[in-house]
Design a protein that fits this description.
Elements (H helix, E strand, L loop, with lengths): L11 H8 L23 H14 L5 E6 L1 H12 L4 E7 L14 H7 L6 H8 L4 H21 L5 H13 L14 E4 L9 H5 L2
Parallel strand pairs: 1-2, 2-3
Helix pairs in contact: 2-3, 5-6
Length: 203
């Protein structure tokens, strides 16, 4: 999941579509929302958390999908335990360390400092600034409301700080991309404000 996201921040409409033809398992990494433990402060630590979760379930091989920060962690999972990952989906993300990767607009950094992200923050980060994009974004957020009203899932402040530390310290997987020998689907918005599509193109 993306930074400051939990299992209940996945749009249920997306999960239902995926689950129509396969088993779908979502999880919160160590120290995140309902998961115990200490939140990792490195990307490799987050990848190791995913690997430990997969192995704890006794699964021999899985398809892994990650979005934004989760997309980086998904790549780390495949690089650190290639025997576990059959296929990889990297959504709205980057390997990081991409040469000449464009920097995000200043408003992105401002939003990351907000103690709580409201509708306008999510709409700016994840949806086009058009009437159609805003309508789609609000519909998605209202679907999330149903799940979050029941679970009250949220990322703890210390976990969010750990995620930001992990991102800041990460030099990237870009130089290791040739090690990925499995099928990889890369999906990104053409005008993603957080992670410019140039970075996804380079995966």
């Amino acid at each position: 999941m993306h930074a400051r996201g939990t299992t209940d921040h996945w749009d249920p409409e997306l999960l239902d579509a995926l689950a129509a033809e396969r088993e779908v398992i979502v999880f919160d990494n160590r120290g995140t929302a309902g998961s115990t433990g200490v939140a990792p402060t490195t990307i490799d630590g987050l990848a190791d958390g995913a690997i430990a979760f997969i192995r704890a379930l006794g699964l021999q091989q899985v398809d892994v999908m990650g979005w934004s920060l989760g997309g980086i962690v998904a790549q780390g999972t495949a690089l650190r335990a290639p025997e576990l990952v059959r296929r990889l989906i990297v959504a709205g993300s980057t390997p990081a360390g991409v040469p000449n990767q464009p920097t995000p607009p200043p408003r992105v950094g401002e939003i990351l400092t907000h103690a709580v992200n409201g509708d306008d923050d999510y709409l700016y980060l994840f949806f086009p600034e058009t009437d159609e994009g805003r309508a789609a974004g609000l519909a998605s957020l209202r679907r999330l409301d149903t799940r979050l009203a029941r679970s009250h899932a949220a990322v703890q402040d210390e976990t969010y700080r750990a995620q930001l530390a992990a991102i800041a310290a990460f030099s990237g997987y870009y130089d290791r991309l040739p090690e990925l020998k499995l099928p990889v689907l890369v999906a990104n918005g053409a005008h993603d404000v957080m992670i410019n599509s140039y970075a996804s193109y380079r995966i």
